[in-house]
Specification:
Residues 7-21 have a biased composition (Basic residues). By secondary structure, the chain is mainly α. The protein has three helices and no strands. The protein has helices spanning 2-34, 43-50, 56-59.
Length: 60
């Protein structure tokens, strides 16, 4: 009997953790949509802000 209970508890913990992580990701995405000036996880864009001459469009 005790074994089943611990299994259920662990299952709940895992689900809770999974939900929390998902919420975090969705929150990040929502913030990105609301505030597009946030640095995107795109290396090209990140580089272009620091060094404009490293950007391809700079030379055009």
């Amino acid at each position: 009997m005790k074994d089943i209970k611990t299994k259920q508890k662990n299952k709940k913990k895992i689900l809770k953790n999974y939900r929390a992580v998902r919420g975090k990701e969705q929150g990040k995405r929502r913030n990105r949509e609301l505030n597009p000036s946030l640095p995107l996880k795109d290396p090209e864009k990140r580089r272009s802000s620091a060094f404009p001459w490293a950007n391809e469009q700079f030379w055009r």
